[in-house]
Please model this.
Amino acid sequence: MNDILPIVLSILVALVVIGGLIPVLVKTRRNITRYPETRDANDPEVRSGGGTAVEDSTGTIERGGPAGVELDDLDTTAVPDDAAGLETIPVETPLPVAGRLSRLRERLVRSNNIMGKGLLALLSSDRIDEGVWDEVEETLLLADLGTEPTMQLVDALRERVKVLGTRTPEHVKAMLREELIKLVDPTMDRSLNVERHADKPAVMMVVGVNGVGKTTTVGKLARVLVAEDKDVLLGAADTFRAAAAEQLATWGARVGVPTVKSDIDGADPASVAYEAVKAGIEQEVDVVMIDTAGRLQNKVGLMDELGKVKRVVEKLAEVDEVLLVLDATTGQNGLNQARVFSEVVNITGIVLTKLDGTAKGGIVVAIQKSLGVPVKLVGLGEGADDLAPFDTESFVDALLN
Model:
């Protein structure tokens, strides 16, 4: 009996260890479909970045793949039924765009109206002399409006004050509103180019420096598009930042959007972007959104690679939208970033994050004047639905209320 006891104990220990490993092994297999290495022998720019994967938010294996990949070639190892629910992320219902806009306007009124109140107080003075105009100019410059737009607004206000004569607070507010709306420019086209083409999806690239919230913006924008009944696919071409692909996939899973990503750290971003668009064409989605690495604007090599990503994607489909994400709190430094990016890729719109808190409202005008590119989206917080289309009149009204 004494000889048998150690054997029995050893068997029990082995069973416990094996039982603990099974969930780990299942977890690593769940929700992943790997594609074979892809390479275009005639195109050195399109090279493999390692196997890519489509991560499906439903907790099942996604069996579709890019054009040219046979089903038999895919690694579709069966997942036990009892493991299908592991770490499943519930699919959320994003807020309607209209409700989101209303909420953002309220937050903007509370957090970003220092400039408007300062101007109203100055221009409602009994006597407006050169000292007052100097203060008006200083207020505008401190609000990151920029030198040229500041002088343009001050000149317009001087002329109108002369004509107006008596100035009640109501008259001053109406005058300021009209001039600020002109400056922000309601004629700019702020719509997103996300309409599907006859045989291909619309393709959007999201670019910007480290730390401005690009991946989060892509996730939030996916929610906006899903709320508009768009079929979306995400491409995780930020292969340099640790866990960026997983972060993007999590955002996608929350709204039922699949993500194409590489399973190799430091994989070629152009290859991942290429595979994402390829999968989007095959699966007939409406929009493919590509998240890129955070490029430092003074790193020439990285900026060149961003241009390469765009060129490679355009071998499959036109890039309809290139959104530059800027942190509104960086002020004039954001302008320098914007100029550099505009030289590498054709920026079609700006996303201003963190427009609440310490941000200055004037940065909207400064960026638009500098680049001739409209601010299309604004973010006013960390919440999943704190991103909305930019509206000129609502923005100005928020500054003045």
DSSP finds 13 helices and nine strands in the chain. Strands lie at 52-55, 202-207, 232-237, 259-262, 287-292, 319-327, 349-353, 375-379, 387-389.
